[in-house]
Design the sequence.
């Protein structure tokens, strides 16, 4: 494993001794404890862990929505963040949601409309630009959210269980699309999930987080050739190993 | 599978979207929304007539619907009547627009500035519980018996409700949407303009509606109390009708007040329904 593991010289994301605590009543809840990791430019990194392992907290810190309690987190370039809920603005159309991201980046009128159209085409929603969020299915909403994230022209895309609420078939399709968009784009992706198979399906590398406090407990390089199938036995073997590690981590926590 | 489904969906839409079906469905829906209202009006008129027939009061004090609607028919042919309605509506509009301007500015300021919120956030809501008629003695001292006294009280009645609506909206913006806005790089005013204010629109419209109700009540109270020369507004005519013991005229004017109130209220209903539909908060 370590033979292929070459530390990138100029990582897109570097986290050094990151600790994040939250006050919980009269005690301090340690969400992350001394987490260090690096993500190479253009790498697809997956984080798996049980709930309470601080994965979402890590993304929030990376996105600049939260400050570290100790240690440092550095992201090189612009960051986009996607959540489990599409969180589209309900008063805007699908295209309007994408255009707002462009507008906030300073892209002007006609160019904005053209780019929004292109981005919606990229996520296979060419005809749905004029629809409102409530007229879209769960999968379509996440596609719009993906287009909106891409509209930020980010160097690093942080994804917090983005497909967790979708049915299996839709999720499968979105895996393909995400891989297609990522492939060769130079985009760095940090993808949080609690599903080991999903992590192995998508990631170049998978980090297993322990719970309470969240730490990097284990690292797996995924060497299966792409495109991978969620149902292939090879993938199941790797995912099985990760699931075992997850179980061990949860057992240690006593939960 | 998806490819097979799509033509089916399209043909389905084509059927339901064809004009005669939609037209008939619209008429049916309009009727199903209208008949309960008509029935309620009919019931109210019957009750009114029943009370008149019961003869608790002589009919020169409590006339029946027929006499009142007869007078309404006469009034509707007289230019002075429309002049009175116009004066009242102009005052309502002036006071209400002023209240929107002041209430929105106040609401926004209190939402944005934590110190202001601590200082007067609850006072704004407390102000609403103050009956607006209580302000009139002061208003008359400050502005004499003038239209300004009326407008002053209308604004005081409506502005807190509008500010409260906006404040309530800002407070209840889903945190996730704010997070989305911030990850898109919206900060400060841009975040307000693109996320927080649009997200508070439904609550703001609620505040506008409540503000209108307060404004209309304050205006009627004001027109009864503050008689301005050569301005025969609805309230003023109502007061004259009482002075002259013209019960038919009095009830006619009350009907007009009720009608205007209901009409404006239903306009807000249309606005609110439009927003809900756009946002997908209606289950059709």
Sequence:
């Amino acid at each position: 494993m370590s033979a292929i593991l070459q530390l990138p010289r100029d990582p897109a994301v570097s986290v050094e001794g990151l600790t994040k605590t939250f006050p919980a009543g009269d005690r301090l809840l340690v969400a992350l404890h001394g987490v260090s990791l690096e993500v190479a430019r253009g790498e697809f990194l997956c984080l798996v862990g049980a709930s309470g392992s601080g994965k979402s907290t890590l993304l929030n810190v990376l996105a600049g929505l939260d400050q570290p309690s100790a240690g440092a987190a550095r992201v090189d370039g612009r960051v986009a963040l996607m959540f489990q809920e599409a969180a589209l603005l309900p008063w805007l159309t699908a295209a309007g949601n994408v255009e707002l991201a462009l507008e906030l980046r300073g892209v002007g009128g006609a160019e904005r409309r053209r780019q929004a159209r292109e981005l919606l085409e990229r996520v296979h929603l060419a005809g749905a630009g004029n629809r409102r969020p409530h007229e879209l299915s769960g999968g379509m909403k996440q596609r719009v959210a993906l287009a909106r994230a891409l509209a930020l022209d980010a160097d690093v895309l942080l994804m917090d269980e983005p497909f967790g609420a979708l049915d299996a078939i839709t999720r499968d399709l979105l895996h393909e699309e995400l891989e297609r968009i990522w492939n060769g784009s130079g985009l760095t992706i940090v993808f949080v999930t609690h599903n080991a198979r999903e992590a192995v399906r998508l990631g170049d590398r998978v980090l297993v987080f322990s719970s309470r406090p969240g730490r990097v407990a284990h690292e797996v390089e995924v060497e299966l050739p792409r495109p991978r199938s969620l149902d292939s036995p090879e993938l199941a073997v790797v995912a099985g190993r990760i699931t075992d590690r997850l179980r061990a981590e949860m057992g240690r926590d006593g939960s | 599978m998806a490819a097979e489904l799509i033509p089916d969906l399209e043909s389905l839409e084509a059927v339901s979207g064809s004009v005669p079906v939609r037209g008939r469905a619209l008429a049916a829906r309009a009727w199903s929304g209208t008949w309960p209202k008509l029935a309620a009006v009919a019931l109210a008129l019957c009750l009114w007539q029943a009370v008149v027939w019961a003869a608790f009061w002589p009919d020169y004090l409590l006339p029946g619907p027929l006499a009142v609607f007869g007078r309404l028919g006469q009034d509707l042919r007289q230019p002075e009547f429309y002049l009175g309605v116009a004066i009242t509506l102009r005052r309502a509009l002036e006071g209400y627009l002023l209240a929107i301007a002041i209430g929105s500015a106040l609401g926004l300021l209190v939402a944005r500035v934590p110190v202001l919120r601590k200082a007067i956030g609850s006072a704004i809501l407390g102000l609403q519980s103050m009956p607006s008629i209580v302000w009139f003695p002061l208003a008359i001292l400050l502005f004499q018996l003038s239209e300004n006294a009326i407008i002053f009280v209308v604004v005081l009645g409506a502005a807190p409700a509008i500010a409260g609506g906006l404040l309530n909206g800002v407070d209840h913006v889903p945190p996730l949407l704010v997070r989305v806005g911030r990850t898109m790089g919206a900060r400060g005013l841009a975040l307000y303009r693109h996320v927080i204010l649009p997200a508070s629109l439904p609550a703001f419209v609620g505040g506008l509606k409540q503000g209108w109700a307060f404004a209309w009540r304050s205006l009627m109270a004001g027109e009864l109390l503050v008689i301005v020369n050569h301005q025969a507004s609805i309230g003023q005519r109502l007061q004259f009708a009482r002075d002259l013991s013209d019960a038919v005229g009095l009830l006619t004017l009350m009907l007009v007040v009720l009608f205007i109130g209901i009409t404006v209220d239903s306009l807000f209903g249309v606005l609110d329904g439009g927003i809900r539909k756009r946002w997908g908060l209606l289950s059709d």
Observations:
- The two ends of chain B are 28 Å apart (CA to CA).
- Chain B has two domains: 19-56, 65-278.
